[in-house]
Amino acid sequence: MGFIKFLKFLKLKLRRKRVAERVAAVHEDSVIVEDSTKGVRSMVFCWEEIKKMTMDLSIMVGYGGFSTVYLAEFPDSTRAAVKIQCSSERLDRAYKQELEILTHVRHPNVVKLLGYCNDREEGILLLEYIPNGNLQEKLHNSNYVPLSWKRRMIITFQLAQVLEYLHEKCSLQIVHGDIKPSNILLDDQMNCKLCDFGSAKMGFSSLVLPPSSRRNRITLLGSPGYTDPYYLKTGLVSKKNDVYSFGVIVLELITGLEAFNLVNGEIVTTRADVALRDVEKVVEIIDPRLGGEIIDLDEVKTMAGVAAMCLCDCPSLRPSMSDILSTMRNKISWISLCVFEEKVV
Description:
By secondary structure, this protein is of the alpha+beta class. It folds into 2 domains: about 15-130, Phosphorylase Kinase, domain 1 (2-Layer Sandwich); about 135-340, Transferase(Phosphotransferase), domain 1, CATH 1.10.510.10.
């Protein structure tokens, strides 16, 4: 067995060496673009360079309805993720929007843009590689060890931090538009990394026609179970759409239930309604996989209360992300000690 492992190790080293040799010229030939307002540097790659770094797209590490993600490697063995968007007029707009937003934002809990390629009809982004999957997998895949309550709270706090940054601290305020566990990646330290800004809206012109408009049906934001019902009725995009989605994720973290069950059509907001109306009953819906832990029920009640406020029918009654962070700092005293609160400019 030891000899077989040694052979596998040699094979891996040889493969990495081949990748490094094939992309040795990448940094010399690529064009560096710098945004003068933020000092954000990203590299423009040609398609041949993308093929070399991914060894002809040989390792797929993720996929969605509209894009596929491949593993890439720089000459120094640093890994990256190449996201290739499907080609269509609408998806081209989404690609350009995501590229523009990632060029402007810098936050420790946002996936970093390393470069892009405009040589093909499909949009191509080169992003930092996040090795630990996503929150959807960790919460709802039985093959993974259940997340501890403490880790769930840290992820919640980090997500609130990055949404506060997007909503209130960017020069052009940003509504993400598709907050859900599969868009929350986890790094090797299990820190939250928000991704997929293809549905995002930037600035104050975030107004689309109501969903009754046939022309705009395909532009509706969000995912089943996470989309703000008020947005579905009016087509109005606002920061409170993200707040609603955040509330759904908090419920998922408390209950361990999926936002929308494809098998029986059950929605977590309906299942957790008893706790949303009376946080004292939250014990009835706590994820049973947390049974082996000693959990502070006051913390769970606090988060159930936060979720209830986020899910208010009237958007104006929902809290801001700053309000949510303030509540968590005041009610869950240890959270600020465990999460580094970097000052982002």
